[in-house]
Design brief:
Layout: H1 2-37, E1 43-54, E2 64-71, E3 74-79, E4 82-88, E5 92-97, E6 107-114, E7 117-124, H2 130-139, H3 143-150, E8 158-168, E9 174-176, E10 180-184, E11 188-193, E12 196-202, E13 206-213, E14 222-228, E15 231-236, H4 240-253
Antiparallel strand pairs: 1-2, 1-7, 2-3, 3-4, 5-6, 6-7, 8-9, 8-10, 8-15, 10-11, 11-12, 13-14, 14-15
Length: about 280
């Protein structure tokens, strides 16, 4: 009997303590949220998980929950009330659903170049809030980024892959430069020197793409060659034929005009995630 009473008392006290903690937590969260609302976000949700890593780097922490906000200035991510990450609108380089959209339908890849670092913010979103999230990011994106987002899949990504800038000598042999890395995404071919972005090439300007086998032999066994803005490029790399095919397909798709459905009616001034129980309509 005494053991039962003791267990009962502990349960009651524990329940009361938990209730007090939850009330305090909810009060702090509401205060935090009200500070975000003052920034007049076009999208605000606490029902999003994210990953963030530089291209070619291992993700430190996989899929963490966050408060995700989009304003006229860019994107911000908070955890436990602390600002962890910001992407200014001029740092955006495009956003697409997962490259294998038929398998991972609720995952968005947001590309950003911050200084000389190219990173991808991967966001797992709710089905109900998808359109509002996409519209908010579209509003701070360039016209070309919006067009690229609206093109149908596949969204071609390849690399980063080790490659060597190459020049052909008078005798026909290919001479290799210092190693770089190539990364292909739906709008750009990105060239890395080490971990830093050395150059980006607009896919819509790439022409005359070819895969060439090195007749003199050696490793890598072949090259990709193309032309952009009256400049010739050649890179020796493994899987050169697959690379040339993906580059040609991505360059072709970058010229396509997507079909964009126009929404009926006028957007509300506030655009909240449908699933967010704390959402208001600016009141």
């Amino acid at each position: 009997m005494e053991i039962f009473l003791a267990s009962f008392v502990i349960t009651i006290v524990g329940g009361l303590a938990l209730n007090v903690y939850l009330k305090r937590y909810n009060r702090r969260y509401q205060q935090f949220r009200s500070t975000l609302v003052k920034q007049r976000p076009s999208y605000l949700s606490s029902y999003i998980a994210y990953e963030w890593a530089a291209v070619g780097k291992t993700v430190d922490k996989h899929w963490q929950g966050c408060t995700f906000m989009v304003t006229a200035k860019g994107i911000a991510i908070y955890r436990s009330g602390e600002l962890l990450l910001t992407i200014q609108k001029h740092e955006l380089r495009g956003f697409w659903r997962h490259p294998n959209d038929y398998i991972k339908r609720n995952e968005l890849w947001i590309h950003a170049q911050i200084d000389l670092t190219w990173s991808i913010l991967k966001v797992s979103y709710s089905k109900q809030g998808k359109n509002r999230l996409f519209r908010a990011i579209s509003a701070i994106s360039t016209e070309e980024q919006r067009k690229a987002h609206h093109r149908p899949p596949p969204y071609i990504h390849r690399g980063p892959t080790k490659a060597f800038p190459a020049q052909q000598s008078l005798t026909g042999e290919w001479e290799m430069g210092d190693a770089i890395r190539l990364y292909l995404m739906p709008l750009y071919l990105v060239i890395f020197a080490g971990d830093e972005v050395q150059r980006t090439i607009d896919l819509s300007k790439i022409q005359e793409i070819a895969a060439l086998k090195r007749m003199e032999g050696g490793n890598p066994a072949g090259l990709i060659r193309f032309r952009s803005d009256e400049e010739d490029f050649a890179f020796a790399l493994n899987n050169y034929e697959a690379w040339a095919n993906d580059l040609a397909e991505a360059a072709k798709r970058s010229l396509e005009e997507p079909v964009i459905r126009k929404r009926k009616g006028k957007d509300d001034e506030w655009d909240w995630d449908d699933e967010d129980e704390f959402a208001t309509n600016g009141t």
